[in-house]
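Thread title: Can someone regenerate the structure for this chain?

I was given the following input by a collaborator and told the matching structure tokens would be attached. They weren't. Posting the sequence so someone can regenerate them.
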Amino acid sequence: MSLIRKIFFYPFALLLNFLTFLRNLFFDIGLFEEQKFDNFSIGVGNISLGGTGKSVLVSYLAEILSDKYMVNILSRGYGRKSKGFLIANKSTTPTELGDEPYMLYKQNHAIRVAVCNSRRQGMLKLIESINKNLKNIFILDDVYQHRWVKPNVMILLTEYSKPYFKDYLFPSGNLRESRISSRRADIIIVTKCPSELSIKQKEKFTSELNVNLKQKVFFTKIKYNEYIFGKNKKLPLNILKKVPFILVTGIADNTLLVRELKMKGLVFKTINYNDHFTYSKRDTNKITSLSDGNLILTTEKDYFKLQEHMNSDLLFFVKIKIDFSEEDSKLFKSLILNNEN
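Best answer:
Regenerated them for you:
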């Protein structure tokens, strides 16, 4: 982050700090009301701009909870072209739902995925539509700043290489609100950690997070599937050593993915688009032309958007998941379930 950016935009960052401080104060003293619902809910969010891995965690939560609950996910549906409240169904498109909610729905049709600009209205409508004979649980995606709804458990994510304690308020940095707001979280998850992290490194990092006694910190990694997935088939990832391909990404930061593929000895060209990029037919024609008949590899959320305009047997995606240690995985799930009880 450049020193010029920090200094030049500092007055604007001070203004944002004042405005977010006032807003949070009004919630804390009850002038603004945080609505609590009888139905158990888990909030997932961050205080940083950019990808910290929220959708990967939401996917993980849906996976570990779906054996016991009817999982309901509520998101804003960033970048979608529709308005109001919408529940995903078989005819819904990524354009209507937003790329990340659509990806979550495609991962598991047994869960319910809804989008709404207002989290409060979205929760009310989603609760109205549930099967009350089932044991329902609600996951609120990207909800940390949307304090009109109060989840039973709030999970805050921060990326290991870009932690909030080293960042500054936007536009001097990439923080949506002050670092002190991290105190609202019940659980803090450090994402995209190096494969080897010592106990001392974890202790030092936790100390810099400045957590309170009630907060629990988990360190997690990104795990890449050994297969790549396409239309009605999957192939071993290692086949890319023999098969030429290009990589297409429309995510906040593709650094880890590029590094992972290169560490496997793969050689490829990359086409980068902005996060949540909406692909047109013209874009997919360009990608097809640049691929020159070779395999096209992309991310899971990009795959479904590209597939709308590119019904190709050469289009595949890399699947990732959040990786807890075995001990932490059990502890994390027990913390969630204990709060529910």
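Residues 223 and 289 are 31 Å apart (CA to CA).
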